[in-house]
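Any chance you could type out some protein's one-letter sequence along with its backbone structure tokens so I can compare the two?
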Amino acid sequence: MSSSALSSDQIFGHVKDTHYFHVPRAFDVFDGDGHFKLPQPIELERPIILLNIDGMDEVNKMVENLDFKLTKFMVLELVVALVIAVIFIHLAVRMTKSERPKGKMWNLLESFLLFIRDDVARPAIGHDADKFLPYLWTIFFFVLGCNLIGMVPWMGTPTGALAVTGVLALATFLVVIGSGMAKMGPVGFWLGQVPDMDLPFVLAILLKPMIFVIEIVGILIKHFVLAVRLLANMFAGHIVLAVLVAFIGAVGSSVATYYHPLFVGVSVASIFGATALSMLELFVAFLQAYIFTFLSALFIGMAVHPH
């Protein structure tokens, strides 16, 4: 690692979405620069949407332009989806042959499923909860898988990108709106956003449209925050982890030998710090998957049982 190990380009380059996988040069048998480039089936002359906000260079670096290129996070999301499908299809086949859970993996997965059903979905949604379980189970394990795959060296965390968390939040938004309109009708759902108030006619004409707009904006903000909360927790943790490891490269470039006491001391401290932070990140991966699922269930419950 060069003397620019602590530069923003180096730090963000390791945690943002890219068109390649960053691997050790010893493992890179193609071009030797440590970048395993992904094949691109669609090549455009220029991006469809080019983000270039004046005075916000760091934001421009973090957000990829829309160009239909295959990216690292796309590949990892596909891997997570396939792993989840294989595991649960295998579990479903085993369940058809036995009425009781057998084996550590079966008991572990079933404990997750029952926890989400009994302690998340049913308390938050109520008697309609079971029909939303397939969505909540899927969103929990997909978010958890995307969080955990970032713990694997040279991979990445798809939930550390706003494009990914935004689509996940959009999926919850569509389920919330769709379930609310299915329960109360398209008109009844939207009119139900304004609570019943005993107001004089003139005052009702003035206040009710304002309350309606505030409620709609509130729904949009809640789902936007749902995306940002997951993004911020996963992205920030990996940024701190990258900085801790980058200290080794930064000090190594300024000393004459790797046996220098300063380099050894910083390396040991960084490794122990990164290990401790990785344990915390492991906990955060499960916690954020739970929070995202719980809030999704809560928003669905608010939509199908308005008060």
User: Anything to note?
Assistant: Residues 8-18+71-304 form one domain. The chain has nine helices and two strands. The CA atoms of residues 172 and 296 lie 6 Å apart.
